[in-house]
Amino acid sequence: MNESDNLKRIQLREAIQSELKASIEDKVTRYLEVNHQLMIGAHYFSAASTECIYLYRDGYFIASVMMSHAINEGIIKFVAERNNIERQKNGGDTKSIEELIEELREGKLISEACAHASNSIWKSFRADIHHMNPTVTEIPFQKLASQNLQNLSTIERELFGFDYAEHGGIIPHQPKYWDINADGKTAVSIRFA
After folding, report:
1. Nearest of 72, 31, 35, 67 to residue 48 by alpha carbon
2. For the residues 165-171, what does the mean pLDDT come to?
3. In the structure, what pLDDT confidence band is assigned to residue 18 with cuts at 50, 70 and 90?
4. N or C: which end of the chain has fewer CB atoms below 10 A?
5. From the CB of residue 125, how many other CB atoms can be counted at a distance below 10 Å?
């Protein structure tokens, strides 16, 4: 590394440190406002859900909105699968996420609050954002990201809620959404700051 590259590295490090110091309180506030579930089952969407929290915390609002859409869809498909809900209609078309949410709600497999939270994410400018329509310039992304993450928290609390056992383990409220081994152990995704 030459002297010029070394100087660039030092300047960049100082700029990043300054930015982090200036934004830390905002990051702490955003992280706490989501009030997310600290632990969920380690499923294919859990890493994305954790990263979505961090994106919001760090101020990447557009990315967190886009990710919340995908995570919501993944979770609804997962719940449908765990409840043996067919994703295909009689005519062969695939049910929309909105149709799956309604079927899960009607079957009392998810609560009204969970269905409302999932539908709110589903209807939060999804098509405009994913297709980058010109209307995205009018979307209040920070507010929308906050709402979507709080709705995602509602969904995850319902599906992955648990109590602590006396021996230090956990007792899932809905075991069918956790992959519990014969020895009673399960893989989890833990989300800390």
Report:
1. 67
2. 88
3. very high
4. N
5. 18
Residue 100: CB atoms within 10 Å:
22
Q: What is the CATH number of domain 35-190?
A: 1.20.120.330
Helix residue ranges per DSSP H, 39-185? 46-57, 61-82, 97-106, 112-122, 126-130, 141-160
Residue 137 in tokens = 């310039």
CA angle 60, 76, 114 (to 5 degrees): 85
SS3 116: helix
Helix (H) or strand (E) holding 18: helix 3-34
For 75-89, the pLDDT digits (tens) are 999 999 999 999 998
The pTM for the full model equals: 0.89
SS3 at position 185: coil
